[in-house]
Structure formats: structure tokens, C-alpha cells
């Protein structure tokens, strides 16, 4: 176990936002959330420290990365994700021993830290993906056929739902997304109440620590007057896919509880005169160089501002922003054939196979 200060948690969230590939929730709101929740030190716990019978759960938000604000007069709940956590505890009839993030992202990892701080439990140094993902079935548990039920949902209006059973995780995605759409675009969810014996064998370990390394590398480079993008790339064994300037603001729309869009760039430096495009569904999922697909999910496509290494979060790219695009290999679990079937380009309606980094090009 490691004791984290508020500053440590903030550094972790910056790293999570970078690994969130443009999604994973709003970083600034995530920072505000932990600043209000973390009054003392918080514990980061290794998955291997869990006992077999410890019960853990996963609190997070579901919805568009550009949700509508619920009118303050309509709000009856301060933290929908915390309320969903409490509801699932009551339903299970047992206190949770720890929480874990559903993904790495400035918003959704912050949600796990908020619930941990307010419930006085540790955060596990792990998540089911090692990046951010757009749909709730995109987890290591789904890959290994471990059900996410029962799960609970709460919105800012105070509506609460317990889902005891679903036919499949795709249906859970439809249910949570539909409730998010009628709830201002976002809902709090707590799912995957699992025993320690199950979690140890089914989660991607060490991912929060990796985010911490990334956040620290960026901070230290800025303090020393060094290149933060290169520092981040070194930690992640990343490949520089592109350097360029945005041709326009991101082109995007909210549809069915997701933020869909494209970003277009013209190259500078070693990429002068070349063109780059990224398609996102909440997260960056497909990249093209000069019209040819150069990288796809499950691998990570990360857009960083050249001047300070800060992540460009969707859909907030602005015209003429100078950026680097990094490619990072996903964890081995997420490069299996089954993982590519459920989280590759064909899942999102594209008529081509996944294009992934070679092992020597990324982690």
C-alpha cells in the first residue's frame, strides 16, 4: 500500500488524462472533484494485497464527454457516482473493501478517488483496460466472461436504478446509455462487485502507478525546461505518429450519448506537408496518415500540446494548435483476437482490420 497526498492524486489524474486518449471524462472537473473530496491521505493498494473474500467494486460515469449541464434547481444529488456506490453496497449487504477505476481518464479515475475518499477505502492500482474506452462492455472482465451485474445507476435528478441481471454487457451498455441520454448526458454507475480472488486474475495491474509515472515525467520535464512530450514518450515507449497543426476546431456531434468527431492536421517539422486525421467516439480510435490507416484501437492514440505536453481532450481541439500524436501499444490482454473483435475498427463500423504497433514500437 502507498499513501497518496492530494498532489499525488492530481499528478495521477494528469497521467490518466494523457492515457485516456482524448476521453475518460473532464480533467478539470476531475481535479475539482478530488480537491473537494480528498481531505487527508488516500491509499493506493496493489491488487495482490486483496484477500480472496474482499469485495470490491467499480464506480464511474457513463455518458458523452460533452454532457449538458443539469439545471441547478433540478439537482437533488451532489455526486451520482457516490450515490450509486452506496446503493450497490446496500443491495449487496456488504461493505466494499476497495474501489477500482473503470478506465484511465481525468474524470472517471477521479470518480474512483472521490468515492474512495468519501467512503474511506483504498483505490486499487489497476483498471480493466489501461486506457479510456467508449462503451461499458470494453473491460477485461467482458473479455474473460465475468458478468458486471448487479450494477446501480444514479443521476443528478436523484433517479436510482438497480439492475440485477442483463442478458449481456452490450445490453448493459444500451441501458446505461439510454438513462444517461435522458439525464442530461451523464449518470453515475457502480458495477462489477467482485471478490479479490476474481479481480486478481482478471484486471490490468499497475495502471494507476503508470499514470503517476507519466504525470511525474511531464511535471519534471517542465520544471527542468526539457521537452515534456519526449519525457512522456520515454515513459510509455511511445512512437511519435505525427507532429502538426490543427486545420480547424474539432468537428463533432453528440449522438446517442456519445461524442463523435474528427480532427484534421497539417504536418510540421519531420512531417511537413503531410496530412493526419483522427476519428473519435469519446476516445481517439482511428488514425490516418496521408489517407492511409496508421493506427487503430485497441492501441492508444494520444494527442499532446507541443508547448507543455498537456492532453487534448475531446472535443476541445482548437484551430492552429500545435500538437504531437503518440502511439502506444495496449496491454497484451487487449491485443488478443477477441479483444480486437470487440474493440477494433470493425466494431465501430469500419471495413478494415486493426492496425497495431509492432512490439518494438511500443509497450
Brief overview, please?
The chain has helices spanning 6-19, 27-37, 80-92, 108-119, 140-143, 169-181, 196-199, 207-224, 228-236, 337-343; strands at residues 2-4, 42-45, 55-63, 98-99, 123-124, 126-127, 151-154, 160-163, 186-195, 204-205, 239-246, 251-255, 258-267, 275-281, 283-289, 292-296, 300-305, 322-328. It has 363 residues and is of the alpha+beta class. The strands form four sheets. Strands 11, 12, 13, 14, 15, 16, 17 and 18 form an eight-stranded antiparallel beta sheet that branches. A five-stranded mixed beta sheet has the order 4-3-9-7-8.
What does this 3D model show about the protein?
This protein is an alpha+beta fold. It has 2 domains: 2-205, CV3147-like domain (CV3147-like fold); 236-361, Beta Barrel (CV3147-like). It is 29% helix and 27% strand. The protein has 10 helices and 18 strands. Strands 11, 12, 13, 14, 15, 16, 17 and 18 form an 8-stranded antiparallel sheet that branches. α2 packs parallel to α4 (108-119). The chain is globular. The model has no long low-confidence stretch (mean pLDDT 95).
Amino acid at each position: 500500500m502507498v499513501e497518496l497526498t492530494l498532489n499525488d492524486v492530481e499528478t495521477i489524474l494528469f497521467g490518466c488524462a494523457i492515457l485516456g486518449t482524448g476521453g475518460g471524462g473532464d480533467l478539470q472537473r476531475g481535479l475539482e472533484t478530488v480537491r473537494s473530496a480528498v481531505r487527508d491521505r488516500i491509499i493506493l493498494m496493489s491488487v495482490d494485497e486483496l484477500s480472496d473474500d474482499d469485495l470490491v467494486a467499480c464506480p464511474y460515469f457513463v455518458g458523452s464527454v460533452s454532457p449538458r449541464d443539469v439545471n441547478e434547481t433540478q439537482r437533488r444529488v451532489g455526486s451520482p457516482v457516490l450515490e450509486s456506490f452506496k446503493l450497490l453496497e446496500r443491495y449487496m449487504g456488504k461493505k466494499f473493501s476497495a474501489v477500482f477505476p473503470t478506465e484511465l481518464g481525468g474524470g472517471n479515475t477521479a470518480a474512483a478517488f472521490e468515492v474512495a475518499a468519501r467512503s474511506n477505502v483504498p483505490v486499487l492500482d489497476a483498471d480493466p483496460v489501461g486506457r479510456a474506452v467508449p462503451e461499458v462492455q470494453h473491460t477485461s472482465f467482458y473479455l474473460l466472461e465475468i458478468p458486471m451485474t448487479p450494477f446501480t445507476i444514479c443521476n443528478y435528478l436523484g433517479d436510482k436504478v438497480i439492475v440485477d441481471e442483463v442478458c449481456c454487457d452490450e445490453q448493459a451498455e444500451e441501458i446505461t446509455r439510454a438513462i444517461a441520454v435522458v439525464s442530461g448526458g451523464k449518470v453515475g454507475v457502480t458495477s462489477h462487485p467482485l471478490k479479490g480472488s476474481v479481480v486478481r486474475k482478471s484486471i490490468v495491474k499497475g495502471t494507476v502507478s503508470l499514470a503517476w509515472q507519466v504525470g511525474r515525467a511531464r511535471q519534471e520535464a517542465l520544471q527542468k525546461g526539457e521537452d515534456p512530450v519526449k519525457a512522456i514518450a520515454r515513459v510509455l515507449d511511445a512512437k511519435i505518429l505525427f507532429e502538426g497543426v490543427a486545420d480547424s476546431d474539432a468537428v463533432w456531434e453528440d449522438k446517442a450519448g456519445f461524442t463523435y468527431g474528427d480532427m484534421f492536421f497539417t504536418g510540421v517539422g519531420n512531417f511537413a506537408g503531410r496530412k493526419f486525421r483522427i476519428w473519435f467516439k469519446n476516445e481517439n480510435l482511428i488514425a490516418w496518415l496521408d489517407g492511409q490507416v496508421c493506427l487503430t484501437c485497441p492501441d492508444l492514440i494520444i494527442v499532446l500540446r507541443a508547448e507543455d505536453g498537456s492532453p487534448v481532450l475531446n472535443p476541445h481541439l482548437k484551430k492552429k494548435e500545435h500538437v504531437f500524436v503518440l502511439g502506444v501499444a495496449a496491454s497484451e490482454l487487449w491485443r488478443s483476437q477477441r479483444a480486437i473483435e470487440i474493440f477494433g475498427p470493425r466494431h465501430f463500423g469500419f471495413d478494415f482490420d486493426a492496425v497495431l504497433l509492432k512490439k518494438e514500437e511500443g509497450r
